Structure formats: C-alpha cells, structure tokens
Amino acid sequence: MNNTQQNPANTSSTKPLKKILLVDDDRFLLDMYAIKFSKSGYEVKTADSTDAALQVINSGYVPEIILADVVMPGMDGLEMIAKIQQEKLAPSSTMIMLTNQGSSDDIARARKLSVDGYIVKATTVPSEVLREVENILVTKKPI
C-alpha cells in the first residue's frame, strides 16, 4: 500500500518538493512520519512492506530519500536496500534506516551497505527524525 501526500502550502511554489519514500510495516508510525515530512515540504510516498516499496520504485518513482525500518515481514529493510543497490534502482537516493534495532550487528550490516544514516526510533521524536534526515542530506557521508 502506498500513497502520496503533499504540503498544500508548497504545491504552488516553483521549488520542487524533496521526494521521500517511507517504508515501515507499522501503519501508525508510517502515517505519523508521512504527516511530519509532508508538513515540512516533502512529497511523501509510503509503503507498508519492502515489496510495496520496490513496486513504488519499479513504477518509476525516484525518491531523493528512502527512509526504511529494518524489521519488516519477509525481506527486511537492509535486504531491500541491498536489492535496490544491486539492481541500481535508485542510485542517487539517500538511504537512511529508521528503526528500533540498535544492535551493533544491525549497524554493521547497515555500514556494509554504506547507508547514509541510522536513526533509532525509540530515542528520537518525529521532529528530531526530520532534523536528522535533513542533516544527513547535507553531509551525505555513510555511517
């Protein structure tokens, strides 16, 4: 399942909105982050599974940012990132993990994939997630 949300205040602007694909199987969190990013001037698409996220990308949507959870049913978020990279589906996208998995093993897996950021949900509120994503976009160096 996916949808697009835009900030109505920004739709008449000539400046293009930053495109972000949010991937999380928790519908509440997905909607909450979609609203937060939308209100901050992002064009938001959501996917509640890694398969749905790959369908969005394969349909031609090229997000500037992919913000994905690690723990997902079926293929996990890091496996999805690996597939996106191997198949060169979104080569210019900034890849950021947003997850409750803060173990050194998960962070090492993310590092091996050269993800651009790793944010632990349990220790950050939505406004901090937004700020961290924007900081990662500016620095654009792997974790």
Describe the fold and architecture.
The chain has 143 residues and is an alpha/beta fold. The chain is built from 5 helices and 6 strands; from the N terminus they run E-E-H-E-H-E-H-E-H-E-H. The chain has helices spanning 27-39, 50-58, 77-86, 104-112, 126-139, and strands at 4-5, 18-23, 42-47, 65-68, 94-99, 117-120. A 6-stranded mixed sheet has the order 1-3-2-4-5-6, with helices on both faces. The radius of gyration is 14 Å and the shape is globular.
List the helices and strands and how they pair.
Elements: E1 4-5, E2 18-23, H1 27-39, E3 42-47, H2 50-58, E4 65-68, H3 77-86, E5 94-99, H4 104-112, E6 117-120, H5 126-139
Parallel strand pairs: 2-3, 2-4, 4-5, 5-6
Antiparallel strand pairs: 1-3
Descriptors:
single chain, 143 residues, alpha/beta, Rossmann fold, 6-stranded mixed β-sheet, 5 helices, 38% helix
In short:
The protein is an alpha/beta fold and 143 residues long.
User: What's the helix-strand series?
Assistant: EEHEHEHEHEH
* The number of domains: 1
Give the CATH level 1 class.
Alpha Beta
Give the terminus-to-terminus CA distance: 30 Å
- The proportion of residues in beta strands is 15-25%
* Dominant shape: globular
Describe the strand arrangement of the main beta sheet, using strand numbers.
Answer: 1-3-2-4-5-6
- Give the CATH superfamily: Response regulator
Please, what is the average pLDDT? 88
Query: What proportion of the residues is helical, as a percent range?
Result: 25-40%
**In terms of per-residue confidence, which ranges show pLDDT below 50 for 5 or more consecutive residues?**
5-13
What structural class do helix, strand and pairing data support?
Answer: alpha/beta
Number of helices: 5
Instruction: Give me the CATH fold name.
Output: Rossmann fold
CATH architecture: 3-Layer(aba) Sandwich
Major sheet summary line:
6 strands, mixed
Number of strands: 6
Radius of gyration: 14 Å
